Amino acid sequence: MRFLRRRIRNTILLVIAIALTWYAFRIVTLSLQVQQYYSGWLVAGLIIFLLAFYVKKKLSVLPLGRNASWAQWHYYSGLFLIAAFAIHVEFSIPDGYVERILASLLAIVVVVGIGGGIINRLFARRLAFLNEEIIFERIPGHLLALRDRVERELLRTVEESNSPTLSNYYDEHLASYFSGNRNRLAHIIGSRQPHLERLNDLELQMRYLNQREAAFAMQLADYLEQKNTLDTHYALQGALKFWGVLHAPVGLVLLFMVFVHIVLVYAFRGAA
Amino acid sequence: MNHRKIIQRPRRWDKPFSDGMSDKNINQILSTPHFSRMQESDFPHWLSLRDIIRNDCRVRRYRKSQLVLNAGAYINSAFLVLSGSASLVLSPGIDPAAWGQVKAAKPSIFSALKKLFIKSRFAEVRKIGPAVRNRLDRNTRRRGAITIKNLDALVRKAGAEVVALSPGDLFGESAVLGRTEMTNTVVSNEKTQVLEIRWQGLRDICKYAPDFNRSIESLYRERGLYEHLLSVPLFRHVTKEKIRALADVAQYEVYGEFAWQRKFQQASKKVETSDDYNSLIEAEPVIAKAGGFADGLLLIRNGFVRVSRRINHGHYTLGHLAAGSIFGLQELYDSWEGGEPQRLRCSYGALGYADVIRIPTHWIEENVFAADQNDAVQSELHRQLDALPGEKRKLDKPAAQVDRKFTEFLVENRFVNGTQTMMIDLERCIRCDDCVSACAAAHDNNPKFIRHGPTFGRYMIANACMHCDDPVCMIGCPTGAIHRSENGIVSINDETCIGCSKCANSCPYDNIRMVPIRDEEGKLLTDEKSIPIVKATKCDMCNTSPGDPACVRACSHDALTRVDVKDVGELADWLDR
């Protein structure tokens, strides 16, 4: 409840801030001044403030407040930046080369940022629903251990059952599956289709297996479940880790382009 | 290239408690009342009394009116007055603000900046060699003593009782043996010499000097009992004479084992089914059983108590009570008021270990319930009845804001012991490991916790030191390297840690790790047999950095907190944020 209340309060404050900003620049325009000079500085200031969050994250040993508070300011300032930019360009599509590059860079940063915010919320929740909590860096190790266990037990089954049916099936259909992380996209969109197909496929093999092999095939289904969990962790945690990789660097390029834009604007001010 | 460097394996007394214990000092100490009665021949040759004094004791000198010990502080030693005299101010004590005491200085921003720029290239690098002096001794010398000029006036104002300490008197034994905070303030009356006996030394002396052990135990029980009764809020307005009389009739009871972690570690590994779980609860020492009649009021002095109720074939944990809590009050009051004996509504069992004081029913009826008691006593009684945890109110109105199953999980795994438990909300955590990176940045590239641990629903209790109320990890430490700072933070003094792993093995939560150490060139330090030298490492709450712990500060998603699990309000606030 408190979470929702906070969101509502912050959204109302954001809407008020946008409305006041828009109104203030209307007054500037009505007083026959070029509002872009003022709104431009506002946009530049906001970009610097937004990038400051990344600097702050690197300086975690310094007592500069909690990142959670900085993140809230970052999110709402980012949304405010979209509105400030729209006011700056007067709700039109920029026409100059530099301006278009600027707008495109901003669009990338915004899309990555908002997308990141959404996947952060969704994927974190989906990870919490999984049975196990696994550290991302340890997934390759777990994977290797699982494959070793499966293949060791498979070899023993072949020896004890004197039948190669299951091992042939494993070679053809499952060996590559156990050798690395698979079906990343399916896990990201939350589909269990590939996993269910694999289980179904294994079940269809049962009629060809002798008793000893069938017993191991049942065990294999459990291993497939474990593998699926590892893949889900890998896909979701990977997306969480690497989705935002572009956000800050593109933001830096954007800041550089803003600097170029400001220099050009003031250099050619007389021509306007 | 040789990747190893051979050094001597650290031993218990490589770094004595004080650099300045001469033979003259030791002879002087051996002639003091307690020590003169000890037989040096009772001590084994490898643990001689002289060696204990030389290495585990130090002499501290105070001028007139200097603060020796402060109420509320955690200590790791007991003290013996050698010369001069001191005043031990009992509860309610004097307000530390009265002498303008400043909080421990926080590390500066420059120390944080230094950490940012100066980092080791290798993991777990240690400076080795004779350059490392005794930090314990150095810190004590550096910290200036606080002078209290108007002690008498402050004592009068607070209405506190003072016990005079003279040569041969011991103090601080209760706090150090009970692993609790000091309840008294001690101030020197004149030029005074005090012998500080580190807990490890005290333990060894007690083992080989039975008379001394008996003195300590009787002090711990008798003086400790009276002091504890004075600090009970329910008796705040009861006269001191009556409290003194109560100390004579109150019973001191111990449930469970002081080193409870061993059994818990063994038992918790076996729990797989609900039957195992029920057996685990049934194996806990029972203090009072639901359905029985309340035999006096029970006060918890140390440890934790599980409040549970049997439902059909299982035990349902309603919550827990910590030191300072009382139980049975509601039933006793109802019995007294209604004239009919009331049965206990819940069962109470020691969670590992609990020191309990039993107040006789007749005393409480005469001195607290009786209508002729003064208004202050009555109003305090009703205030206490209204605020009682874990009793009728908890059963009738589940007002506790923390989900009961979660409470059960916390009690079951003994997480209630934690005062700085790291809790992670997995629905918010994006597994970015910024918390781990920040921890590493604050500790010379060595993270002090693992973002992993037991989970309950969306919450994880990470493997980070919880700075327990009852830090059982300290029990076996042979050197006192793992100790509790005055503010309750459990820290490891790396210089005196000999890598024996006792703390890591004792921690019931697996929050202490043993790490192989390296020199500044990255060479692994080993002994002559090529066995790596290891040191214990764990979270220190960033006590060498300014501000909040780095892990909390670094989490951008408000997913991580450090919480005192006993404080249900604080926990509920965070869960419902």
Summarize the helices and strands and which ones pair or pack.
The complex is a heterodimer of chains A (272) and B (577).
Chain A: H1 2-30, H2 35-58, H3 67-88, H4 97-129, H5 139-161, H6 165-178, H7 184-189, H8 193-205, H9 211-242, H10 247-267
Helix pairs in contact in A: 1-3, 2-3, 2-10, 4-9, 4-10, 5-9, 8-9
Chain B: E1 4-6, H1 23-30, H2 33-36, H3 49-56, E2 57-62, E3 67-69, E4 77-83, E5 86-89, H4 109-117, H5 135-142, H6 151-158, E6 162-165, E7 170-171, H7 173-178, E8 185-188, E9 192-198, H8 199-208, H9 210-230, H10 240-249, E10 251-256, H11 261-270, H12 274-282, E11 286-288, E12 297-311, E13 314-321, E14 326-327, H13 329-338, E15 347-359, H14 361-369, H15 375-386, H16 392-396, H17 404-412, E16 421-425, H18 434-442, E17 455-456, E18 459-461, E19 482-484, E20 490-492, H19 502-506, E21 513-516, E22 524-526, E23 534-537, H20 550-554, E24 560-563, H21 568-575
Beta-strand fraction estimate of chain A: under 5%
Helix proportion of chain B? 25-40%
How many discrete structural domains of chain B? 3
Q: Can you tell me the residue ranges of chain B where pLDDT is under 50 for at least 5 consecutive residues?
A: 390-399
Q: Helical element count of chain A?
A: 10
This entry's quaternary arrangement is heterodimer
Largest binding interface between chains: A-B, 27 and 38 residues
Mean pLDDT of chain A: 92
Q: List the domain count of chain A as a whole number.
A: 2
Distance between the termini of chain B: 55 Å
- The percentage helix of chain A is over 70%
- What's the gyration radius of chain A in Å? 28 Å
Question: Count of helices of chain B?
Answer: 21
Any idea what the shape of chain A is?
elongated
Structural class of chain A comes to: mainly alpha
Total number of beta strands of chain A: 0
The average pLDDT value of chain B, as a whole number, equals 85
Number of beta-strand segments of chain B = 24
Largest sheet geometry of chain A? none
